[in-house]
Amino acid sequence: MKVAVLDFGKTNSKLFVFGQDGRILDERRTQPKWTRQDGFSVLDEADLHDWALGAVTDAVENHGVQGVMVSGHGCTFALVDDAALTHPILDYEQEPPAEIAARIDRRIPDFAETFSPRLPLGFNYGRHMLWLQEVDADAFAAAKSILGYPQYWSWRLGGRPVSEVSYLGCHSHLWAPRRQDFSSLVDAEGWRGQMPAFARAGAVIGERLLGGAARPIAIHNGVHDSNAALHAYRRQGLGRLTVVSTGTWVIVLNPDCPLDVLDRDRDMLVNVDVDGGPVPTIRFMGGREFAAISGGWQGAIPQGAIQQTIDAGIMALPSFAPGGPMPDRPGRLVGRTPDASERAAAALLYVALMVDLCLDLIHSQETVIVDGGLNTGGLLAGLLAELRPGQAFLQGATLEGSATGAAALAFESVGRDFAAEAPEPVDAARFGGLSGYRDAWRDRVGGQGAAIKAAGGAR
């Protein structure tokens, strides 16, 4: 059996073909396009659909895939009737007008109910739902179903409309993790009747005949991408884990962190795993910040440039994107003017130092798995292992933990084995002065000592 996984990221969307042995047999990539329409930034859904349908059709014809699964980024919803969107899909990177924000923000549930901090833009997609409802009530009235982003694509490709807990529980304001039910906001706004019945991530929710195939392929219910990565590693029986999932966002998930230590002002929250369990989380836009600091660097970073950057004290100080554990601070570079490779080194060191801080704040003391595109070449994981010698570090055998977890869910749902490659042990990097560089960075950031001491991180 083979499965095609559509991994819809905010910056890049990808298709992977997985075999039962966990190997990636083929892949394709594109970038979603965002356009302006009626005062909103919205997804060019038709363009992305054409790419996705073409990629899946080719996977059916060239590899004989028998199912298609979706993994999707958070913060995004879709309103649909029986056949189509009733409003274009909103870009989560836009802020409601101030007068509307003042009204809708009064209706947001308390953090103690949803464990969704009040975040800017559409980082809580319930907030964007309130905004859209204010300005286009007809789109809500016409909608038969309110879908999470992965569920939209599973539906668009031929599945039935369903809800899925890992996506609803992703800092949306729509879910109450302790009750394992919709939040008070859903009932206050009358949305419960538009929320479809639940299906587990990976469940078969339809089928479709594509290309020249003799029989239809299964359409599997989609999943939130970082929760898919968590599932990928949990299923391998590795014991207690913290997962660092990297991409546009760096998501640090520690299921063993006590809920009462989560600080809503540091972008700490509860995600929900595919079985409805709470997963304490801290996050920042690491991929976006890496691109901003590095000037769009692509490819490997010379290790010599990292040592030069440490020796010169060139540092990036937070924050270069909204949200994160240190919001409302203007990001800046300090030290002498770096060359291009030193800027890239400073960017990677920044991501490593931010992850290190997040691991302290989320009370991580167990094994850490580093996954995703920012760990190309294993350098990020190596830096973290050097910074935190008291912890064991592993890294994904591929960079595609989210897609691998999504594939596993699809195979499991039809009773098939899926033998993903085990993560690899990480050797600590060996850079002179890294610990002192970290201490100097934290001193410059300021105000972190009490939080870090209280967190009791494993260093």
UniProtKB/TrEMBL annotation:
<dbReference type="Pfam" id="PF21546">
    <property type="entry name" value="FGGY_C_2"/>
</dbReference>
<keyword id="KW-0418">Kinase</keyword>
<feature type="domain" description="Carbohydrate kinase FGGY C-terminal">
    <location>
        <begin position="241"/>
        <end position="410"/>
    </location>
</feature>
<dbReference type="InterPro" id="IPR049382">
    <property type="entry name" value="FGGY_C_2"/>
</dbReference>
<dbReference type="GO" id="GO:0016301">
    <property type="term" value="F:kinase activity"/>
</dbReference>
<protein>
    <submittedName>
        <fullName>Carbohydrate kinase</fullName>
    </submittedName>
</protein>
<dbReference type="InterPro" id="IPR043129">
    <property type="entry name" value="ATPase_NBD"/>
</dbReference>
<keyword id="KW-0808">Transferase</keyword>
